[in-house]
Write a structure and sequence with these properties.
Layout: E1 8-14, E2 20-32, E3 36-41, E4 45-48, E5 53-55, E6 60-65, E7 70-76, E8 81-88, E9 92-93, E10 98-109, E11 115-118, H1 120-129, H2 134-153, H3 160-176
Parallel strand pairs: 1-10
Antiparallel strand pairs: 1-2, 2-3, 2-4, 3-6, 4-5, 6-7, 7-8, 8-10, 9-10, 10-11
Amino acid sequence: MSTLVGKNIQIQSYKHDETLHRIWEKATVVAEADDYIVVVNRRTKVIESNGRFWHTREPSVTWFFTDHWFNIIGIIKKNEIHFYCNIASPFVIDDEALKYIDYDLDIKVVDDFSYTTLDRNEYNKHKMKMEYPIELKSILERELSVLKERIEQRSYPFDHEVVKQYYNQYLEEKDDE
């Protein structure tokens, strides 16, 4: 795979029924490994499936994985770093965008690493409506547990310094342009 580091990419999220959920117009790749890619965005335009759009308020560093059913966003606030985690398919990337399927279940992690699981009702509604296969439901629940364990153990990338390092790398690269 040719390196994407330093390049801007679009991010597209879908729902299980293949309908478009949301597009982030631009994110800058700051790292890639065999099993993940890291992107940074700041004031990025986000387009919802209904055509409405908004801009991200805080800068963020996001990890997308090829072997886990979640992605992890480190959100840089004034004096804190929060994480927002989406239960989602492993990503794929093509000439158009980085793409994944969003499965509704989310975890919000605040600065002290306490966390809350969000959107269980939306997940339950969609798993019935879109008829998630039994194997998929079991993968999603297992990955939710893996994610909680990573948060509790402060496993990579749940480290405020790692988020700051990637964001600072992004800022340095922007200054060089």
